[in-house]
Amino acid sequence: MENGKLIIFSAPSGSGKTTIVKHLLATNSNLGFSISACTRDKRGRNEENGKDYYFMTPDEFKQKIVQQEFVEWEEVYPGAYYGTLKSEIERLWSEGKHVIFDVDVRGGVKLKEYYQERALSIFVKVPSVEELEKRLRERGTDSEDSISKRVFKMNFEMSFQDQFDVVLLNDNLDEAVAKAQKLFDDFTK
Q1: Which overall architecture, per CATH, does domain 6-187 show?
Q2: What pTM was computed for the model?
Q3: pLDDT band at residue 79, thresholds of 50, 70 and 90?
Q4: Which of 128, 132, 146, 182 would give a disulfide with 142, using CB separation of 3.0 to 4.6 Å?
């Protein structure tokens, strides 16, 4: 797609960004999800390789770094790599779709820097640290240690919000989804 655009959603874990992204994907047929590559284990039985993530070994991931196959990549936690394959964006554009991302804040900043005007970067902000912790617990997919690390990391991630085009406060999910839809519609006109 010659005029393909990128919509980048980044935020601390538990902010609701994945819920917003899934809603936009379900209601916009011209939108395709950019599947990230990662080295972490699958969470539960529901995650699938090539659908939720491209699950790789650290060695496979590092080889792709050397071969410059990533637009962006990060070592998010020691030994835990995440990244966006160039081939994934090209795949979606070749299908005639705009690309939507659900990525870590550093990845979001790098994607915006790389694609500039073709990208709209949106930082989904949670109302408070307490609300983030509550959402992570309700999600039921993280250990206590993982929740503790993610809450600690939130303050660091919040420092990136000024590097995004839009800060979207998610204190009411229905309103946040409606605002996200309007941002997408206006950007892809």
Answers
A1: 3-Layer(aba) Sandwich (3.40)
A2: 0.83
A3: confident
A4: 146
